[in-house]
Amino acid sequence: MWSPERKAGSIPSWPVVAGLRLYCHASLESPVTRSASPPPLVPVPLTADVFAPFGDVIEADQARSHLINEGRTRRFHALATSAPGEGGEAILSIFRGTPWPSPVTVRMLERHPLASQAFVPMERHSWLVVVADAPRADACRCFLARGDQGIQIGRGIWHHPLLVLQPLQDFLVVDRAGAGNNLEEVWFPDGESVTLAAV
Fold this sequence. Notes:
This protein is 2% helix and 37% strand. The protein is built from 1 helix and 17 strands. It has one helix at residues 48-51, and strands at 22-23, 44-45, 55-58, 65-68, 73-76, 88-97, 105-106, 108-111, 117-121, 127-132, 140-145, 150-153, 158-159, 163-164, 169-178, 184-187, 194-195. The chain is mainly beta. The strands form 5 sheets. Strands 2, 10, 11, 13 and 14 form a 5-stranded mixed β-sheet that branches. A 5-stranded antiparallel β-sheet has the order 3-12-9-15-6, with no helix packed on it. A hairpin with a 7-residue loop joins β10 and β11 (140-145). The chain is globular.
């Protein structure tokens, strides 16, 4: 499972201000030369290994299952552990996603500095996941998740809001309720973005 220790160091001390959108400028620790029109970001298949730096993949893993209810039910056990953070509680919600305009252009990222967030599709339709190890267009990675795969995004991991490929798709979401600001958004500088390749 994902844990903060998998990544070097702690979460960067980006300012967290309730209700304020932050804008990321080129004056980061290591200046990067960016092309005006980067190539489309091609989604790669979602697997537990490649997603490990960002969180957990939630799927029916036979190796983590056992029979219950007199052999009538197979339980896929403890596929992820919710981390609601100090003073928070884990809650269940349903998110109903609709597609972003095509082609999808990533112009911002968000993160939840206090807790993890899990998405599990309620219909078997493929969907997209965009995550990054820094709030920059050139740091984005895109994964194509099957309709029987969910994810749990680790605390403080940058990601794009929900990306569905169907006209409508519901997700069971496990995240945090409680005091404190648990949402930070960063919008890229004008002209900086990355477009997702068609799937």
